[in-house]
Amino acid sequence: MRHSPERSFGCEEDDFMKRVYQIASFFFLAFSAYLVFESRQMEYYADLGPGPGFFPFWLGITLAALSTIWLVQASIGSPQAIEDDFIPGRRGALRVLSIVVMMVLFAWVVDFLGFQLSMLIFLGFLLIVLGRRGPMVTAAVAIVGSFGVYYVFTRWLDVNLPASSIEFLRNLGL
Asked: How buried is residue 126: exposed, middle or buried, by Cβ count under 10 Å (0-12/13-18/19+)?
């Protein structure tokens, strides 16, 4: 629900929001410049096609263009009212926090447990905590999202994904 004209922000708050958007757009501009700079350190084009620097270079260029558009809109446009439910409540904040924590844990254990088990745990947890599907659908998505993706990337696309550093698990093909 949007704020009604009677409840709209005052001039000071409008200026504050304008500054927030401008600062955020400058942050993304700086990040895009970093992406472009770092991608130029990598090979842009390899013998087989686009090299490792191709994607981050064009991602940085696209992000710079969108950030510039956002900066112009924030600078010359009139600020829009913030919706009442823009900032999540406690439940929404806990959901966001759980996703961030699981992503950090995934990155921390993927070299130890390997991609397949780490992704299975990651997807299983998130689908149980955040999902609204039954246990069969959750299990199927977690299994296909971990073992199926591993198979596609390693067998068809020849992309190496981390294997477990635990010898017992590695001997099982995990």
From this structure: buried
Please report, for residues 20, 21, 113, the alpha-carbon distance to residue 1 in angstroms, rounded to integers and kept in the order given: 22, 21, 45
Helix, strand or coil, per DSSP, at residue 165: coil
DSSP codes of every residue in 45-108: EETTEE-TTHHHHHHHHHHHHHHHHHHHHHHHSPPPPPPTTSS--HHHHHHHHHHHHHHHHHHH
pLDDT tens string 143-172: 999 999 998 888 888 888 888 777 877 777
Q: Percentage helix, strand, coil, to 5, in the chain?
A: 70, 0, 30
| The overall pTM is greater than 0.70 | no
Chain-centre distance for alpha carbon 127 = 17
List of residues 6+ apart from 174 with CB closer than 8 A: 113, 114, 116, 117, 163, 164
Residue 80 CA to residue 70 CA, distance in Å, equals: 13
CB atoms within 10 A of CB 121: 17
Q: In the 8-state DSSP scheme, what is residue 5?
A: G
Higher pLDDT, 25 or 88: 25
Cα separation values, 110 from 64, 96, 163, 173, Å: 32, 21, 8, 15
